[in-house]
Target: Transferase
Amino acid sequence: MGKNYVDIEKESGETLRYRKHVNGRGLIAHGAKVHPTAVVETGAYVEPGAQIAAGVHVHHGAWIESDAVIGPEADIAAHAHIGPGAAIGARAKIGVRTTVGDHAIIAMGSLIGDDEIIADREHVATDKRGLRLAA
Model:
């Protein structure tokens, strides 16, 4: 049986240890909290301090940075990037290759399409079709 962790050296020379999540085998850094019912697929990374709630699905290649919070039953598509301190509401869907900036907030149930860029500290709410609601 192989190791259940991977050590990765950062550019600064610091080494971070990531454990493989039981649901999907994605890499979870020491200090991140991932609910046991969440799925973090192979090739996805969850950085220290991030919190992933129940029923979340983080697809392959997605990157959840430090201190980001992902609400229950949210869906983070392949190769999406969730910036540090960002908050994704319950049942929100983030599209393929979409970037959510530092400390941005995506409202509960919002639908963010593929290849979108949400600016740092931006607050976004959409209807079920992905049309943005007035702030």
Observations:
- The chain has one domain: 5-124.
- The longest strand covers residues 15-20.
- Residues 5-124 form a domain with the UDP N-Acetylglucosamine Acyltransferase; domain 1 fold (CATH 2.160.10.10).
- The mean pLDDT is 94.
